[in-house]
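Project outcomes to date are best conveyed with an example. Our students and postdoctoral researchers have been running inverse folding experiments weekly, and each run begins with a structure described purely in C-alpha cells. The record below, which covers 180 residues, was selected by the lab manager from last quarter's runs and is presented without edits.
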C-alpha cells in the first residue's frame, strides 16, 4: 500500500472530502469576506463619527485581518456542512440521476453510480458554500452590532472599532472550528 499510486478517480474522490477548496471557491470566499468585513466601516464612519482619513490605516489593517478570519470561517463551515448536506440529498440526487440515465443501455451500473456520486458531491458543495456564506455573514454582522452598540458603547470609536472587529472575527473563526 505504501508504494501504490492513486488513480485519477481516487484522487478526485479524496479531493471532494478534503478541507482544501478550489480556486473558484477561495476567490468567492475572499470576495464575500472582504465585503462583509467592510460593512462595519460605514457604521463607524456615519454613526460613531470616525474620520476616514485619520482612521484609514486602522480600518485597512483590521479589514484585512477580518477578511482572512471570515474566509477561514467560511472554509471550516463549508467542510462541516458538505458531508451533512451530501447525506441529506443523496436519495434525491440518486433518483434524479438514475431517472435521467435510466434508458441508457450503453452505460454500466458502475458508471451510473459514479455519475450519481459526482452529482451528489456537486450539489453538496454548492449548498454548503452558499449556506456557509449566509450563516457566517449573518453571525458576523449581528455580533458586530451587539459588540459595537451595546457592549463597547462607552469606549472611544477607534478602540471600539478595533475591539469589535477583532472580537467578531475571532469569535466567528473560533466557532467555525467546532464539529457540530
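After processing, the design step wrote out the following sequence:
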Amino acid at each position: 500500500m505504501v508504494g501504490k499510486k492513486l488513480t485519477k478517480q481516487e484522487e478526485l474522490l479524496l479531493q471532494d472530502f478534503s478541507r482544501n477548496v478550489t480556486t473558484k471557491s477561495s476567490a468567492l470566499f475572499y470576495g464575500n469576506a472582504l465585503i462583509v468585513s467592510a460593512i462595519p466601516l460605514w457604521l463607524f464612519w456615519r454613526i460613531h463619527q470616525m474620520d476616514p482619513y485619520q482612521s484609514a490605516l486602522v480600518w485597512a489593517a483590521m479589514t484585512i485581518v477580518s477578511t482572512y478570519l471570515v474566509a477561514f470561517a467560511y472554509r471550516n463551515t463549508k467542510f462541516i456542512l458538505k458531508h451533512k448536506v451530501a447525506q441529506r440529498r443523496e436519495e434525491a440526487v440518486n433518483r434524479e440521476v438514475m431517472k435521467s440515465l435510466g434508458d441508457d443501455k450503453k452505460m454500466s451500473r458502475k458508471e451510473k453510480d459514479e455519475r450519481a456520486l459526482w452529482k451528489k458531491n456537486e450539489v453538496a458543495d454548492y449548498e454548503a458554500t452558499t449556506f456557509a456564506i449566509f450563516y457566517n455573514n449573518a453571525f458576523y454582522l449581528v455580533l458586530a452590532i451587539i459588540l459595537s452598540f451595546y457592549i463597547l458603547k462607552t469606549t472611544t470609536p477607534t478602540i471600539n472599532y478595533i475591539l469589535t472587529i477583532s472580537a467578531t472575527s475571532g469569535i466567528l473563526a473560533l466557532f467555525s472550528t467546532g464539529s457540530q
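The two ends are 33 Å apart (CA to CA). Helices lie at 8-16, 23-47, 52-101, 109-151, 157-176. The training component of this project remains on track.
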